[in-house]
Structure prediction request, 220 residues.
Amino acid sequence: MPILVPAKGDAFDFRLHVVYNWTAQNMVYEELRLRAERYLGWAAGIVRERAVDLAREHEPHRSHDLERALNDRLGGQRWPREGTVPHFGVLVRVSPDERVRERLRPYWEDRIRLECDHELQKIRATQADELTRRWCAVLQNLEDDPVTSHAARLTGEQFAEVFRRYVEERRETVPELVKLLREAVRGHGDLGMGPSEYTEAWDAALRTYERQHGLSERVN
Prediction:
């Protein structure tokens, strides 16, 4: 049976759930048990007396704070302090008034939902980051050959679509770069510079790039 003590404002009660630790010297267990049962009401009165003033200092929804304060105050004490009769110490657990619990429920439901949503978003962000890094690594190492293209299709429709767009964009930029290289080579020739080291380097770069991307046949 919990002990009721008033919270701050006297509108709500705290419920004290007390564990009694009875000890005695030169007494068999059965006699100790009988005496403890006989003194239980007296023991509960002592706990309530020690707890009332402290409980009134705590707001109705601060049951955990009261629990810590009570155990700090009552821990290590024994009653009665003298005599040969069994004496006891206590450990107290405190719960709020049921009306307070109902009012706190929406708050904790919202808090739990927000924390769960936050954790879920963190997991999704981590997974997205990891997936993006993997895709970037794969795309950077892909070569435009039939084996790679078919292998990409095996990894799923979403990846295949990303791969297709990547290849198309890559192919669109290649002709523009080749055109730029060709114009640079021709331009140096038109200026009458001759086969300078600069022109030869650009020409070598152009031919290497065309071979790598299968554009050798397009050279005019």
Summary: The beta strands are 3-6, 13-23, 87-95. The CA atoms of residues 185 and 199 lie 6 Å apart.
